[in-house]
Amino acid sequence: MSRLRLWLERVGVGVIAFLSLSAPFVFGFVYYLGVTDGLEINAGDPLRESRVWMIHERSGPAGIGWLYTRPVEAPQEGVQCALSQLILFEWRAGLSLRTDAEYCRCFTPDANGRLRESAVTCR
């Protein structure tokens, strides 16, 4: 048996193992999103919070939404800004991926060190 064939067999076994182990995770994750209000990551941190949830309509599940927030450059000293992008994966009327919604918010730290929304606008 040649070395190339041996490596191709190993790669093939690796791909099959990966697919067989990841498929239950994907189905389980979609099920979890369907029975809960979603998954929040870094909740309470307005500069880095993310949220994943199932979009429900009257006819049933219609897609998955993902809100991703990341810090961006602030327009002035003492202000911290965050850009949030909304990504929607919908399957009700055919598969579609929408990434056109985003907004930016700026925050200033209060006396307790918590971030409060500021009137400053992003760049």
Please describe the topology of this protein.
Elements: H1 3-35, E1 39-41, E2 50-57, E3 60-72, E4 80-90, E5 96-109, E6 115-117
Antiparallel strand pairs: 1-2, 2-3, 3-4, 4-5, 5-6
Question: How would you characterize the overall build of this protein?
Answer:
This protein has 123 residues and is α+β, with helices and mostly antiparallel strands. The protein folds into 2 domains: 1-35; 40-123. The chain is 27% helix and 42% strand. The chain has 1 helix and 6 strands. Strand 5 (96-109) and strand 6 form a beta hairpin. The radius of gyration is 21 Å and the shape is extended. It starts with a helix and ends in a 6-residue tail after the last strand.
Estimate what percentage of residues fall within beta strands.
Answer: 35-45%
Order of helices and strands: HEEEEEE
Instruction: Count the domains.
Output: 2
The total count of strands amounts to 6
> What is the overall number of helices?
1
- Cα-to-Cα separation, first versus last residue: 62 Å
Q: Regarding quaternary structure, how should these chains be classified?
A: single chain
Low-confidence blocks of residues: none
Strand order of the largest sheet: 1-2-3-4-5-6
* Helix fraction bin: 25-40%
Taking all residues together, what is the mean pLDDT?
A: 89
Structural class: alpha+beta
What is the overall shape? extended
Provide the gyration radius in Å. 21 Å
Largest sheet: 6 strands, antiparallel
